[in-house]
Amino acid sequence: MAIKTSVAKGKVRALRNRVLVSEMHFGEQKTASGIIIKNDDGTTRGIYPRWAKVHNKGPENKDDYEIGDWILIEHGRWTRSFTVDEGSGEVELRMVDPDCILMYSHEKPDGVQIGNEYSDTQGADIRPEDFMR
Question: Whole-angstrom Cα distance, residue 118 to residue 112?
């Protein structure tokens, strides 16, 4: 669990063609029927693109999506989060590489599950020794 060290105050905007996103989900999930799905970050099941909401985009970014749209980002193509208080409460933001945006939606995607090929958990954990000679 990360320790919050500081919160930046003021308006934040993306530079050049970068994109700032919020509402990217990590951790435990709960289905509509109440089933709790454990946190899969750090396992093979956890390596998949993630949806996030566009908070801001730089002035050089001419892509079709707008602020408030949802974008699907290639796994790992985002920065660590930072917290900003823009006056209406704290928001956790991440910067995204605009070249790694796979698709966008005007509405929040519902029920999208990527990575089901490892849902049986067999061989789903990443073991560093498998990659060593």
Answer: 15
Domain ranges, ordered by start, for the chain: 9-25+40-110
Q: Indicate the SS3 state at residue 84.
A: strand
Give residue 11's Cα distance to chain centre: 21
Structure-token pair, residue 94 = 């991440």
- CB neighbourhood size of 95 (10 A): 20
pLDDT in tens, 90-114: 999 999 989 999 999 999 887 555 4
Query: Is 94:52 a contact under the CB 8 Å cutoff?
Result: yes
C-beta separation of 31 from 76 below 8 A: no
Q: What is the pTM of this model?
A: 0.69
CATH 3.30.1360.130 correct for 9-25+40-110: no
Rounded CA separation 63/114 (Å): 24
